[in-house]
Design brief:
The complex is a heterodimer of chains A (209) and B (330). Chain A is α/β, with parallel strands linked by helices and 209 residues long. Helices cover 26% and strands 31% of the residues of chain A. Classes of the chains: A alpha/beta (209), B alpha/beta (330).
Chain lengths: 209, 330
C-alpha cells in the first residue's frame, strides 16, 4: 500500500523472483495509521483468496512500529510470530521458527496459514539468507511486467471502505518536530596525544583508576 | 460505557516479570491523578509464581492485579497472553493501556488493538495528559529524526512504551492492593505450539554501562579477539554495527542500531564505525561517546565527545598496553 511512486520497489521484487505484484494505491488509503494500514492489507489479501504464508519485515524504516504485521494477522484471524530470526522447518501445514522474545529465542511451531515477521539476518534451516543481485535479464523482464493497481472500490466487497485511510485511523499526530540532538562538540586528537587523552578521559569518567 | 483508570500489562513469559513492566507502573502512578480511576496490572502467570508476582506488582504501584493462572507450558504462548489482555481490558475498561515495547510486547499489543478496534502507538518515549485532559503519546519516527505527539480518538488508548525511558520505582511491600483471579478459557487448538527456549541471550547490551563497539574498520573475523581483549580490560561489553552481523562475524544480540539494540551506556567507544544513521539511532543517547577512526570527516564526528584520529588496531594495542598499569573500576 503506497502512492504510485512505490512501483519501482515492486519491480525490484519481480526481478528477484516474485510472480505477481499488486500496488494498493488510492487517495482514500492516505493518512492511514497502523490499524487502517493493516485493515487495508488484510482486505487485499482476502481479495486474493487463499494463501499459505504471509511474510513481512520486522518493521518499516519510516514508521518503525513493528505493529502492522501482527495487526494484519489479527484481522485475518491467523496465527503469527514476530521477530523471527530463523525458519527451522516448513511442511505442508506447519512452520517451525525461532523468534526473539526479548530475553531469549524461542522455538515456535505454527499452523498454516500464518504470518511471519522476519528480522535481519534471517537463517533458513542452516543457511544465512542474503539478498542477491538480480540478473540483468530479470531486471529487464521486471521493467516490462504488469503491476496491478487496486483501489478502494476494488476492495469494497471484502471490506468496509470507511475503515481505510485517515477516516479509519483512530490515532492523530497533533504535533511533530525534528528531534533535538544533544549538542556534542567533539574534541579531536591524534598521534602521541591519543593514548594520553584516552587514559585521562577514562580516568575522568571513572572507568579506570 | 465509561473508560477509567490505567491498565499495565506485566510481561511474563519466562517465570519472571520484565522490569519494564515495573517502570510502566511507576509512570502510570504519576499519570493516575490526571486520568482518574485505579491502576490495574494484568499478568499471565503460573500457580507457583502467582502470589509472588501479585505482591511485586502491588509493591510497584498496582491497585488491582488481574491474575491469569495457566499451566507452565502455556506461559510462552502469545495466544494465551493476547486472550488474557483482551479479557483484562473488557473487565477493567481502562482509559489507557501500557505495554512494554519489547519484541514480545510489540507482538502481543497490536493484535489486541486490532481485535478490539482501537488505536495503538508504538515504541513511545513518553505519555502525558495535556491541558485539554487528553492523553498524548510521544514517539520517534523516521529513524528517530522526528518526534511525533499522538492522540487516540478511540478507547482505550493503547501504547507500547520503550523499556528504560522511565525510572524503576522504589517498591513498597507494605502497599495494599487487591488480587482478582481471572479465568481464561484455554482452547485446545494447536495453532501456536511453543516448543521451548532455543537459545538464551548471553548479553544484554541495553543494560551495559560501558560499551566497546566495532565496525567495518575491523578487517577479519580473527581480529575481533583484539577488541574483545580491550573490552575486557575496560570491564565493558563488546558490541558492533550492522555490517559485522550481516557478515556473520558477530551475533545479532551484540548489534547496536535502529534494527538492533538501542543502548544508553555511560561510555560508548566506537572503533572503526563511520556513523550511518541506522547506527547513530541506536547509540546517540549514550552519556559520553569516544570515536576512533582514520577519517576525521566521518559522520560519527558530529555525534561524539572525543574523536581520536587514528588506526583502530594501533590505538587498541597501545591502549591495552597502557591499561596494564591501571585497574578498572568494578
Amino acid at each position: 500500500m503506497a502512492p504510485p511512486h512505490a512501483e519501482p520497489a515492486l519491480r525490484d521484487a519481480i526481478a528477484r523472483g516474485v510472480d505477481r505484484a499488486i500496488l494498493l494505491s488510492d487517495k482514500r488509503f492516505a493518512g492511514a495509521d497502523t490499524l487502517a494500514t493493516s485493515y487495508t492489507l488484510a482486505a487485499a489479501i482476502r481479495r486474493l483468496g487463499s494463501f499459505d504464508i504471509i511474510l513481512c519485515g520486522e518493521k518499516s524504516v519510516d514508521g518503525d512500529t513493528a505493529h502492522v504485521g501482527p495487526e494484519v494477522a489479527e484481522h485475518l484471524k491467523i496465527p503469527h510470530i514476530s521477530f523471527v530470526t530463523r525458519v527451522v522447518d516448513i511442511t505442508r501445514d506447519r512452520i517451525i521458527v525461532e523468534a526473539d522474545y526479548g530475553d531469549a529465542y524461542y522455538t515456535v511451531d505454527l499452523k498454516l496459514p500464518a504470518l511471519i515477521a522476519l528480522s535481519r539476518p534471517v537463517i533458513f534451516k542452516e543457511e544465512f539468507v542474503e539478498p542477491s543481485m538480480p540478473k540483468i535479464s530479470d531486471v529487464l523482464r521486471a521493467k516490462r511486467a504488469k503491476i496491478e493497481v487496486w483501489n478502494a472500490d476494488y476492495l469494497s466487497d471484502v471490506a468496509d471502505v470507511g475503515r481505510f485511510g485517515l477516516a479509519g485511523s483512530p490515532t492523530r499526530v497533533v504535533k511533530a518536530y525534528y528531534a533535538l540532538e544533544k549538542e556534542r562538540m567533539a574534541r579531536f586528537v591524534k598521534g602521541d596525544e591519543s593514548i594520553i587523552t584516552l587514559l585521562n578521559t577514562l580516568k575522568e569518567l571513572g572507568v579506570i583508576q | 460505557m465509561s473508560w477509567r483508570g490505567i491498565l499495565v500489562y506485566a510481561e511474563n513469559y519466562s517465570g519472571s516479570i520484565h522490569r519494564a513492566s515495573f517502570e510502566l507502573l511507576g509512570k502510570a502512578r504519576g499519570l493516575l491523578p490526571k486520568i482518574g480511576g485505579v491502576l490495574h496490572a494484568a499478568i499471565v502467570t503460573s500457580e507457583e509464581n502467582a502470589e509472588k508476582h501479585s505482591k511485586e506488582l502491588i509493591a510497584f504501584g498496582a491497585d488491582e492485579v488481574l491474575e491469569y493462572i495457566v499451566k507452565e507450558r502455556f506461559l510462552p504462548n502469545p495466544v494465551v497472553h493476547r486472550n488474557a489482555l483482551i479479557d483484562a481490558i473488557s473487565y477493567a475498561k481502562p482509559k489507557l493501556v501500557l505495554v512494554p515495547a519489547t519484541p514480545w510486547g510489540r507482538s502481543i499489543a497490536p493484535r489486541v488493538a486490532a481485535a478490539i478496534r482501537t488505536g495503538i502507538t508504538a515504541d513511545c518515549l513518553d505519555v502525558y495528559v495535556d491541558d485539554a485532559g487528553d492523553i498524548v503519546q510521544v514517539r520517534p519516527a523516521f529513524t528517530g529524526n522526528i518526534i511525533a505527539h499522538i492522540k487516540t480518538l478511540t478507547s482505550p488508548v493503547m501504547a507500547t512504551v520503550r523499556p528504560g525511558v522511565f525510572p524503576l520505582p522504589q517498591p513498597d511491600y507494605s502497599r495494599k492492593g487487591e488480587v482478582i483471579a481471572k479465568n481464561l478459557s484455554l482452547s485446545e487448538d494447536d495453532d501456536v505450539r511453543v516448543v521451548g527456549v532455543s537459545k538464551r541471550k548471553t548479553v544484554k547490551l541495553s543494560e551495559a554501562t560501558i560499551i566497546v563497539s566495532i565496525g567495518k574498520g575491523v578487517r577479519s573475523k580473527e581480529d575481533i579477539k583484539l577488541f574483545e581483549e580491550l573490552a575486557k580490560a575496560l570491564n565493558a561489553q563488546l558490541a558492533c554495527s550492522r555490517p559485522l552481523v550481516d557478515m556473520g562475524w558477530m551475533e545479532r544480540d551484540r548489534q547496536v542500531g535502529f534494527s538492533g539494540n538501542i543502548v544508553r551506556p555511560r561510555l560508548y567507544i566506537a572503533l572503526g564505525i563511520s556513523g550511518a544513521p541506522q547506527h547513530i539511532a541506536g547509540m546517540k543517547d549514550s552519556q559520553y561517546i569516544i570515536a576512533v577512526n582514520t577519517d576525521p570527516s566521518a559522520p560519527i564526528a558530529k555525534y561524539c565527545d572525543l574523536f581520536v584520529v587514528g588506526d583502530i588496531y594501533d590505538i587498541a594495542k597501545k591502549l591495552l598496553q597502557a591499561l596494564e598499569g591501571f585497574k578498572e573500576v568494578k
